Amino acid sequence: MVLSVAEKSYLYDSLASKPSIRPDGRLPHQFRPIEIFTNFLPSSDGSSRIIASDGSECIVSIKSKVVDHSIENDLVQVDINVAGERDDSIIVETLSSLMNKVLKSNKGIDTSKLQLTKKYSFKIFIDVLIISSYSYPASLISFSIFSALKATKLPKLVSSFDDLEVEELPMFHDYDLVTLDVNPPLVFVLAIVGDNIFIDPASNETEVANNGLIVTWSNGKVISPIKTLALNDRYINGFNPLLLKNGIKLVEQYGQNIADALENL
């Protein structure tokens, strides 16, 4: 959406006022409506599709293979593709770096949940496709990955866990599946306008934001990475450090509600 100078000025004043007024009437902590579909890709172990109210859309596919974790210890691989963008574009590389840091950190995906035997583990491949996006898509991607992982089912192991003394490959049940038990972190995008802070900024809000924040949440508390983000190329300036504290409190207060909503689909 391209806004005129007068529209941007009016929108900025509305968002920076006390109390703030968002264009769609949301409160600072409220998200836009989204539609979520899971397990719609028959060839994947887990999948999700999220469509936001502004038309942004993201698809995630989860696939797995058995690897010897003594040789290959990287058990999570994230690949992100954005429609219309090259693989080496700044937006793709930035999002890929962010999601790999989030999911592969000590408080990311618990890889012990992927272990099959003393020698073998599942390696999961997380493929993300952003079909369309009208605002910074980090939260959209994170929510899609969370939903897909929660919907992932892997083959049930029937062979012995201790396979160091007897050389054998893992054997699986013909049709029984086990739900993957992981709690991936969630990434929240926040916009700073004046002395106010907003979760899930829409495209018109990002156009007048003075700055942006990326805040990561997991299991009831905020974790790293936390970083600033330029949401536009005109209104960017510094902000009061207290706003960072307010943003963290906002995510800590409502993060569990978002996780519960995504998990109870």
UniProtKB/TrEMBL annotation:
It is found in: Cytoplasm; Nucleus, Nucleolus. Signal peptide: none annotated. InterPro entries: ExoRNase_PH_dom2_sf, Exosome_comp_Rrp42_subfam, PNPase/RNase_PH_dom_sf, Ribosomal_Su5_D2-typ_SF. Its main location: cytoplasm. SUPFAM superfamilies: Ribonuclease PH domain 2-like, Ribosomal protein S5 domain 2-like. Keywords: Cytoplasm, Exosome. It comes from Naumovozyma dairenensis (strain ATCC 10597 / BCRC 20456 / CBS 421 / NBRC 0211 / NRRL Y-12639) (Saccharomyces dairenensis). GO terms for molecular function: mRNA 3'-UTR AU-rich region binding. The lineage of its organism: Eukaryota, Fungi, Dikarya, Ascomycota, Saccharomycotina. This is Ribosomal RNA-processing protein 42. The gene is NDAI0H03350. GO terms for biological process: exonucleolytic trimming to generate mature 3'-end of 5.8S rRNA from tricistronic rRNA transcript (SSU-rRNA, 5.8S rRNA, LSU-rRNA); nuclear mRNA surveillance; nuclear polyadenylation-dependent rRNA catabolic process; rRNA catabolic process; TRAMP-dependent tRNA surveillance pathway; U1 snRNA 3'-end processing; U4 snRNA 3'-end processing; U5 snRNA 3'-end processing. GO terms for cellular component: cytoplasmic exosome (RNase complex); nuclear exosome (RNase complex); nucleolus. Belongs to the RNase PH family.
